[in-house]
């Protein structure tokens, strides 16, 4: 059974940092594009960042220069390093890979 489990969310002040992790199990994701999405209250889920299996990365414009997506294929884990967090980054962050979704982890940024 394939599972994606996110961790690392929490409450942080504006300007702070968090590192999210997505642990995948049930199959290898080394040959799969893996991505992060987020959903703020009352808003649609939106793309945040993708880690292509060939090494490419792509980011939502609003997070460029602040967020970094990476992966460890040895441990089947996807990461999202989030720096200089802003209140508008508050959302539930989901791991996607690509037909599977995690349960999400809450990130709250206070002003």
Write out key terms for the chains shown:
mainly beta, globular, 4-stranded antiparallel sheet
Average pLDDT confidence is 96
Give the tally of β-strands. 10
Judged by helices, strands and strand pairing, the structural class is: mainly beta
Helical run tally? 0
Strand content: over 45%
What is the rounded distance between the termini? 40 Å
Q: Biggest sheet, open or closed, and with what strands and sense?
A: 6 strands, mixed
Question: Reading side by side through the largest sheet, how are the strands ordered?
Answer: 2-10-9-4-5-6
Task: List segments where confidence is low: pLDDT < 50 over at least 5 consecutive residues.
Answer: none
What does this structure look like?
The chain has strands at 3-7, 10-13, 18-25, 34-39, 46-51, 57-59, 67-72, 77-82, 91-96, 105-110. With 111 residues, the protein is mainly β. The strands form two sheets. The protein has a six-stranded mixed beta sheet with strand order 2-10-9-4-5-6, with no helix packed on it. Strands 1-3-8-7 form a four-stranded antiparallel beta sheet, with no helix packed on it. The radius of gyration is 13 Å and the shape is globular.
Quick overview of this protein structure:
Helices cover 0% and strands 50% of the residues. With 111 residues, it is mainly β.
Please describe the topology of this protein.
Elements: E1 3-7, E2 10-13, E3 18-25, E4 34-39, E5 46-51, E6 57-59, E7 67-72, E8 77-82, E9 91-96, E10 105-110
């Amino acid at each position: 059974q394939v599972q994606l489990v996110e961790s690392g969310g929490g409450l942080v002040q504006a300007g702070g940092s968090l590192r999210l992790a997505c642990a995948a199990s049930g199959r290898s994701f080394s040959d799969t594009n893996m991505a992060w999405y987020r959903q703020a209250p009352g808003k649609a889920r939106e793309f945040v960042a993708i880690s292509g299996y060939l090494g490419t990365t792509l980011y939502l414009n609003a997070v460029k220069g602040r967020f970094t997506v990476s992966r460890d294929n040895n441990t089947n884990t996807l990461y999202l390093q989030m720096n200089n967090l802003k209140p508008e980054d508050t959302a539930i962050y989901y791991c996607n890979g690509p037909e599977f979704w995690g349960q999400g982890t809450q990130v709250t940024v206070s002003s």
